[in-house]
Amino acid sequence: MTNTKEYLQSWATSYKNDLTENILPFWLQNGLDKKHGGVYTCLDRKGSLMDTTKSVWFQGRFAFVAATAYSEIEANPKYLEAAKSCIDFIEKYCFDSDGRMYFEITQDGRGIRKRRYVFSESFAVIAYAAYAKASKDDSFAHKALKLFKRMQYFLSTPNFLPSKYEDWVKGKGHSITMIMLNTAAQVRKVIKDPILDKQINDSIYLLKNDFLKPEFKALLESVGENGEFVDTLNGRLINPGHCIETAWFLLEEANYRNWDNDIKNLALTILDWSWDWGWDEPYGGIINFRDCKGFPCQDYAQDMKFWWPQTEAIIATLYAYWATNDPKYLKNHQLISDWTYKHFPDKEFGEWYGYLHRDGTIAQNAKGNIFKGPFHIPRMMIKGYELCNEILKQ
């Protein structure tokens, strides 16, 4: 890297152009359901529909992305229309009679199944919040806050959500902790409420005091009821992508608090440790899973390279460089960007592949399914564009 300013200007331009000329057009053309509303995500390499089952996660996720692109990148009316289509589909079809949301749903709105967690709700919340900002309709800010409070009720009410394990097995999960942190922060952008600040503070406390394990230099995916280390395959699991995503959520909060040193240092510690666990020195890219004691991981995809950890690393390294001006983070941004852009984008049919083998060869070439769709990649491009421009202002 010879010129930092040119490097950042080049990436800012690339993020914006790729978002508006490749990623969003791919999904607006191939994914939107013009008959029933909402978005399909089960698309093959060329964008043809493989399955009409709809991911409820992505009704919220795409609404969030499209509304945020409208607010932060360009006020293209197609973005706002897409966001509203997904939100309308959510409100009409995606809630069950008990107030919880489905996980999968038919194209015309019949519930297929729910799952034990509240991630569908979290993505609907951030969709409402982003749409409130984009449309300047405050009613959606209130909807976001109301649904967020309902999530808290679901999580805090004993036996309301199905348990993963038998009753005697108690524990805490990193995923919901990080999700609640970010979801509260997104809602706070459009409406103020003490419960949002409390949730953010509580999540930060748990991350620092329960999930962060200095003896392993790792942030673990699960711990015991009181934050204790559980010496099992699941208890030793490190998900570097999740950890790196948490790091930039924390950097965003540190920035909100005028670069609060404690939160910033926590974020940088998590990022540094997780990069060391995640960066695959022989092949490049962020690997899926590690065991904090070095044992083999149980998950069958443990050594694959998925699309989303790479995008989280791109955001986090830029955020860390903005926070510190330390050139090692810009070097890591270049490492992860060079590897990611060499292997994931489909130069012939657009969008990105999602699933690679460890060496970067393509495992399968579909552009979407129930779990992959228009979220991590466009969110990275939006955040990357914003961060490059913030750094350039300095």
List keywords for this structure.
single chain; 394 residues; mainly alpha; three-stranded antiparallel beta sheet; globular; isomerase activity; 6-hairpin_glycosidase_sf
How would you describe the overall organization of this protein?
The chain is mainly α and 394 residues long. The chain has helices at 4-30, 56-72, 77-93, 119-135, 139-156, 174-188, 194-211, 240-256, 261-278, 307-324, 327-343, 376-393; strands spanning 54-55, 104-105, 111-113, 171-173, 212-213, 218-219, 222-224, 237-238, 290-291, 305-306, 355-356, 362-364. The protein has a 3-stranded antiparallel sheet. The longest helix is centred in the first third of the chain and has 27 residues, at 4-30. The two termini are 18 Å apart. The mean pLDDT is 97.
